[in-house]
Amino acid sequence: MMTEDENGEERDNTMGAQRTDHRDPEGGQLEGVWALPGEEILKALDVSPDDGLDEEEVRSRRKDYGENRLRSAERRDALDILVEQFKSVIVALLAAAAIVSFAFGEVVEGIAIGVVILINAAIGFVTELRAVRSMEALQELSQVNSKVRRDGQSREVPAEQIVPGDILLVDGGDVVTADVRLLEASKLQANESALTGESVPVSKQTDPVDEDTSLAERASMLFKGTAVTRGSGEGVVVATGMDTELGNISSLVEKAEEQETPLQRRLTELGRRLIWLTLGIAALVILSGVIRGRDLFLMVRSGIALAVASVPEGLPIVATVALARGMWRMARRNAVVNRLSAVETLGSTNVILTDKTGTLTENRMTVTHLILPASDDTTYRVDIEGEGLDLKGEFSLDGQAIDPREREVLEQALRVGVLCSNAAVNTEGGEVISVGEPTEVALLVAGRKAGLAQDALTDEMPEVREVAFDPEVKMMATIHQQPGEGSGYLVAVKGALEPVLDGSTHVLTDDGRRELTDEEREIWLERNLEMAKEGLRVIATAMREANSPDEDPYQGLTFLGLEAMLDPPRSDVRDSIKAAQHAGVRVVMITGDQPATARNVAYAVGLVDDPEAEVVHGGDVSALKDLPGDDKKRVLETRIFARVSPEQKLDLITLHQESGAIVAMTGDGVNDAPALKKAEIGVAMGQRGTQVAKEAADMVLKDDRFSTILAAIQQGRTIFNNIRKFVIYLLSCNVAEIIVVALASLTNAPLPILPLQILFLNLVTDVFPALALGVGKGDPNIMDRPPRDPEERVLTRQHWTGIVGYSSIISVAVLGALAIATIRLGMPEEQAVTVSFLTLAFAQLWHVFNMRDHDTGFINNDVVQNPWVWGALGLCSGLLLLAVYVPGFASLLKVQNPGLNGWMLILGMSLIPWAAGLVIKAVDGMQITS
Fold first, then answer.
1. Which of 166, 355, 567, 593 is catalytic?
2. Spans of all domains in the chain
3. What is the model's pLDDT at position 832?
4. pLDDT at 401 > cutoff 90
5. What is the pLDDT of residue 23?
6. How far is CA 899 from each of CA 250, 744, 830, rounded to the nearest angstrom?
7. What is the pTM of this model?
8. In sequence order, which ranges of 3-106 are alpha helices (DSSP H)?
9. Which has the closest alpha carbon to 595: 663, 535, 527?
10. Cβ neighbours for 380, distance < 8 A, ≥ 6 positions apart
11. How much of the chain, in percent, has pLDDT values that exceed 70?
12. Does the pLDDT at position 21 exceed 50?
């Protein structure tokens, strides 16, 4: 049913999206583009499908239509972030304490608590604002590109620069970046679930459909935000940005709420529990004091002090800063984290399932030689010079230079590699620019070395049909009109050797075409295996002539030979794999390549020590998840998997997860998306990865390097370790405050620390050292330890024991200082309380050094070597001295100059917890090494 919205625009209520009216450059309307012939749309948009738009026209249209982007979700307003700081149990508790203070006539204390609320809000506001802006900036680090045809050449451009009239080229794995009317489609399917809710991929074609066809059935269209799951195609862009169907829907969607990570939720809950626990203790203390006949006002003040002491003001602030800073460190190491929760999971990752090409290898394919059929049922090898995108290189046979155009089979093999391609290689300003999959680029470069330029060949033999690469068939074909009327069509085929051989009935040699015998098939399989053992990737080529472009392209082929490509291992991979294994992280290679190739690369990069290591072939295992116990154990111990299907990748992940592993999975293709979702950490390749893979992943590697994964894991461990340290630090400080107030309240002793003094400490000696711990670089030896147990809580029983122990020692030191100042030194109450207050303050400052790891040295540890820690200590010490010697501060906090004896007592007693920590670390160290 069609209705009008509040703006008077038509809306299809059944789909929840506005109807799209597409405007042409002349200002007219192209309504229902899915129902119009492609030629009519091209004419209206004034564009040639062969040439595309020129740059001048693109600039002009971009002025008319704007950039191809949706309206960004509104940035979190600074005022909203500020208001959020007052919506917490912490603020409510402090506000209640302020109200009680005013009620009992303690106006200064009430005002001070109000000021503390504002200071706390200010700290939270500044840190959260920086974290939010950091997250927003991180989203800009990953830019989406699209392939278009402009000025007659294929090129990649930022998606934002696409305009109506652009000719957009798509392949399996691409995310569609604009609404497109299809002009060509080969086995093209798209996942439109993001738009229509339909989870099954939709087949696409070029014929118009009825104008009344619903959005989900417009087979002649591709829509922005959907994903190409199979095949290839090209079409003309008819809508961009907010004019797309996705733009219409997004305009109706409200800004999604920010969600905390599991770790942040656990920390928030931990703080709340501590608050309610302390409120219970405060109520008990007040009630017991009143029953014993103590002054009501004194007991209420004690209750307020306990309540204030329980508030871990720094906990959420430091957690946010630690996570945000850690993400920035990852981004600087080329690992862009899409989901904040992934930061936590990285620290416990213990299995990496990695692909081979581009991650362990350079993904810089170069055709090094061809194996071609000889006339006497044997083969011969032609070598090619040059690496990468070098367009010049000599061909040689037995060490003698040859002209590839003078050998028919060599020329035809190279010609097929150039014609059967979706890639492009162009020269701009003296620089070689490649677009497309590296294997296809390598074939184009090999052809250019022989003088076979893609543009010239396609001008001579225009492509009339493409049969896109199918992962199940493992072949691709293009059909070309041969020159001369009635000459028929040339079918160019490339793919894996086995299926190409199966479809071949003949073989071409320099002496002509003849039948392919079974003995020759075995010889070719042997040659293929030999090259795979050398770590080479092998592509088979074949051809046939056809009378119609609709004939089966994979039958009756004439086999041409093999093109072997070298993809060298990355120079840093061997050390990275060794470091991963040393860190307790198992690395497993999963590849679609042949077993021999996989084994060769695995041995070359140090993944296995045995050059004959076992390789599990995907075809040998039908259902990994249904394996019996012994076979399952063997699979779990295997390091190399070859010829693995997408379904088997999912089974492998499940198998490792059921064994208790936390799995990181790398991938780049659309078929990898389910596995990336299934793994705890999905890692997509930023350079060669499809947009579908990037959107499914938790983390994107901008440089595609395996070493970057390891750096991210190290940073994940560091972040969690830092968070654990500052949580232990904050809680041990807060619990110490609770203990000293509770014990003093239950006896006839004066309060060792007043509510306002507690607030001052919580904002000074707690937050700044905790922030320093949270942003530290961490222990450089953290990768020398095994991964953290994923079931392990932030605070284990051992950590709680440490918190209680350290808190008790600090409390004893503070109460001891109060007793000595009162009894031995005869100080008046306010001066004695000043001594206990400063003892607690400096004990908390020195306590930060107890947060070093057990297996680190007295000097050589991440706390002592953290410059932020020393900065925090200097700042806090200065603020404490100001509190004592600046009259205004002193009267506000009710402190007095402790005098020389007082300072000596403060220094001596405050060092006791630190000295006790040294003993504890030494004893633990002896237990660890014994």
1. 355
2. 2-68+162-250, 78-135+260-330+713-929, 335-361+570-704, 366-566
3. 94
4. yes
5. 43
6. 68, 24, 13
7. 0.68
8. 38-44, 55-65, 78-84, 89-103
9. 535
10. 371, 372, 374, 397
11. 84
12. no
